[in-house]
Write a structure and sequence with these properties.
Helix content: 25-40%
CATH topology of the largest domain: Dihydrodipicolinate Reductase, domain 2
Distance between the termini: 53 Å
Mean pLDDT: 96
CATH class of the largest domain: Alpha Beta
Number of domains: 2
CATH superfamily of the largest domain: Dihydrodipicolinate Reductase, domain 2
Largest sheet: 8 strands, mixed
Strand order of the largest sheet: 8-9-10-7-11-12-13-14
Structural class: alpha/beta
Oligomer: single chain
Number of strands: 14
Length: 320
């Protein structure tokens, strides 16, 4: 039987997940909620078998799984309510923006023992799995570090503008929304990271999120992860993570383009999926079923997501 799912938060991510859950044989979106009536109407168009509830609590009550795609600040209350009702949880990242609040959330969810995972979209993808296998097999040689480079002409990007909160310092910004993915990926390959230094730059309007980020992180053994984020100027979007090995290195661009180098130019080594987003979401949902069944899976755990959040918030506050 498919998993009855409630989707709370019907912006771009909530609607995408609702659409792909409706297409997946393992899930059935049954309940939707968002404070914006227009977002609810848009979600119903892609998940017509579901219904819009009057409150998030009503949506939680009729589901076996609750997917939380709302902004970070209200997410904790909904997650606690779902866990207390014995529901499984799939949370969008970042886990939160207040570290103390997120630590309390993780402790409560672990005490309740409900299946729970966080949607770092690369977790079940072929790119991360392939790099991880190569690193473990030793074919890359010694893993010596990683470079993360992200540049945008504008933030939020055009397709994100409906989520206005993304442009504000309180909950948004490219470090939380994008760099968090690559920090998760890096820790999966290199191990736990700590910040050596981080220098964010903010616009003159104190309400707005960072437009630049330079940072150096290191593993316990001193292997470096270098980060550069830059917003502004006429340019295409660039999102790259390079895992550097002594024999060969792997570069993941745009979350799914897998390239390798043995010292020469990077060359693509895997066929690009025809629909990268659909492929990625299906893989996440396949592993979500494993998570709910208590079986081994590749999804981000609560503790992994909390570690990433701590790193992100430290970076945003600046470390010298």
């Amino acid at each position: 039987m498919s998993v009855k799912t409630a989707v709370i938060g019907l912006g771009i991510m909530g609607r995408r997940m609702a659409e792909h859950m409706a297409l997946h044989p393992g899930f059935t979106p049954v309940a939707l909620w968002d404070p914006d009536p227009a977002a609810c109407r848009a979600a119903l168009a892609i998940a017509p078998g579901a219904f819009v509830t009057k409150t998030p609590e009503e949506a939680i009550a009729v589901a076996d799984l609750v997917y939380l795609a709302c902004p970070p600040v209200p997410r904790k209350a909904y997650a606690l309510a779902a866990a207390d009702a014995g529901k499984s949880l799939f949370l969008e990242k970042p886990l939160g923006v207040d570290v103390a609040e997120s630590k309390a959330l993780v402790a409560h969810l672990e005490k309740r023992g409900v299946p729970a995972a966080v949607n770092f979209t690369q977790a079940a993808g072929t790119a991360l799995s392939g790099v991880n296998e190569a690193a473990l097999a030793g074919t890359m040689g010694d893993i010596v570090g990683a470079d993360i480079v992200v540049t945008y002409a504008a933030w939020p990007r055009e397709w994100q503008k409906a989520a206005d909160w993304l442009r504000f310092k309180g909950e948004g910004g490219p470090t939380r929304e994008v760099i968090s993915h690559f920090l998760f990926f890096s820790e999966r390959i290199l191990g736990e990271l700590s910040i050596v230094w981080a220098r964010p730059s903010y616009p003159s309007d104190a309400r707005l999120c960072e437009t630049q980020m330079l940072a150096r992180l290191e593993t316990h053994s001193g292997r470096p992860v270098s980060i550069m984020v830059s917003v502004g100027g006429a340019q295409p979007d660039l999102q790259e993570l390079t895992i550097k090995g002594s024999r060969s290195s792997r570069r993941i661009s745009e979350f799914y383009i897998d390239q390798a180098s043995d010292g020469g130019p990077f060359v693509e080594i895997a066929e690009r999926p025809k629909d990268p987003r659909a492929t990625s979401l299906k893989a996440q949902l396949d592993d979500l079923l494993l998570c709910m069944a208590g079986k081994p899976n590749r999804l981000a755990t609560l503790s992994e997501a909390l570690r990433v959040q701590i790193l992100v918030e430290q970076m945003l506050s600046g470390q010298s």
